[in-house]
Write a structure and sequence with these properties.
With about 375 residues, this protein is α/β, with parallel strands linked by helices. It folds into 2 domains: about 80 residues; about 280 residues, 3-Layer(aba) Sandwich (Rossmann fold). It has 13 helices and 8 strands.
Length: about 375
């Protein structure tokens, strides 16, 4: 039986080194914060006490976030080897760890395309944005989904856009647009169509994909972000949204495990409910969809506490007259972001719907030409 670890040992070792560096950075930060708090308490002044209280709040968040991140790391490694990449395609050519930002070597993208493709023919581009609660996730552990899309005849770029809280809002969406700019700059080299692209992702990646959809179709929303000018007005032909978060405030009331930590990390350690109303609105893409929002294939799951957010988005898109196709999976395996793995019947059905959706939009595009 083939698995990621035995076939991609170099990528696994590199990921382990990155994780160890992040652990050391976290441990040093906690140690420094503890020393600062102790020093302020020894000063025994009102100003020092106020600073100490603020630092203790930050330390409390770092410790809670560190605990959750630790669980994510374990799940990502195990998932990468045994589950997330189950049902992947081996009929694709893969190139990993392509740096797309010369000022930040930690950011990268992986590319997937059909083996033996005719390089004289330009391929449509599908950009994949992984999930992981904004605090984790890797392109390498989403290769069942990305390789299946590539096998169907698409050039897939899967992005690593940085983890919160280091890359807090709006850094993630800004990094995504840096990656889009890189792809536009290298479109001739890859022989890909970047005039209009497809974008998709699961969970936090679904949230960021929906944000991109709003940025591409709502000028008011676009203007809120400091995006790479080469890609600021990138056209998005269609979205594939798998169990995403489209209303952050509502997500807090769903009972989804660790949702408070995830949203706080996304905001750099701040509670969403304590942020200005303008920011609360900004981070929820459902507030910014218009009749021009890209055609959407939405995936949700019966046993996902965030599923109601997908239903809300689908309902709003339908009301606006936006084309939307909704696949809602049922049964015991219908859990959050189930379609990442391609080893189950419902995930294969979700992939079938994804390819039919993408192919359908491509056919419409060809007719328009």
């Amino acid at each position: 039986m083939k698995n990621f670890l035995t076939e991609n040992l170099e990528a696994f070792k590199l990921k382990r080194e990155q994780l160890e560096a992040r652990r050391v950075e976290f441990a040093n930060r906690v140690k420094l914060q503890s020393a600062q708090i102790q020093k302020l308490l020894e000063e025994n002044t009102a100003a020092a006490s106020k600073k100490a209280k603020k630092l203790m709040k930050k330390l409390n968040f770092d410790l809670r976030c560190g605990y959750v991140v630790g669980g994510h790391v374990k799940n990502e490694i195990l998932g990468m080897i045994f589950l997330y990449n189950l049902g992947r395609s081996y009929k694709v050519k893969i190139e990993r760890h392509i740096k797309f930002d010369e000022n930040d070597p930690t950011l990268y993208l992986n590319t997937y395309q059909p083996k033996g493709r005719d390089m004289r023919k330009k391929l449509k581009t599908f950009v994949y944005i992984h999930g992981g609660g904004w605090i984790g996730g890797w392109p390498e552990s989403r290769e069942a989904f990305t390789t299946k899309v590539a096998e169907a005849g698409y050039f897939v770029a899967s992005l690593y856009y940085g983890d919160a809280p280091k890359y807090s809002h709006p850094k993630m969406i800004e990094n995504i647009y840096k990656a889009l700019a890189f792809l536009k700059e290298h479109a001739e080299e890859f022989n890909i169509d970047m005039d209009s692209i497809f974008v998709g992702g699961e969970s936090a990646g679904g949230h960021l994909s929906a944000m991109a959809g709003c940025i591409s179709t709502n000028p008011e929303y676009n203007a809120l972000f400091n995006l790479d000018e080469r890609s600021r007005h990138q056209k998005i032909e269609g979205l594939v949204l798998n169990c995403g978060v489209y209303d952050m405030l509502k997500a807090l009331d769903t009972g989804f495990r660790n949702i408070n930590i995830y949203t706080e990390a996304f905001l750099g350690g701040m509670k969403l409910t304590e942020e200005p109303e303008e920011l609360q609105k900004q981070v929820s893409p459902i507030n910014w969809v218009t009749k021009d929002f890209p055609p959407t294939y939405a995936i949700s799951a019966e046993n996902d506490k965030l599923a109601v957010l997908t239903f809300d988005l689908v309902d709003k898109l339908f009301g606006l007259g936006v084309y939307v196709d909704h696949y809602h999976a049922e049964g015991k395996l219908a859990i959050h972001a189930f379609a990442v793995s391609q080893g189950f019947k419902i995930s294969k059905q979700a992939m079938k719907g994804t390819i039919e959706f993408l192919d359908g939009l491509c056919e419409l595009d060809e007719k328009d030409e």
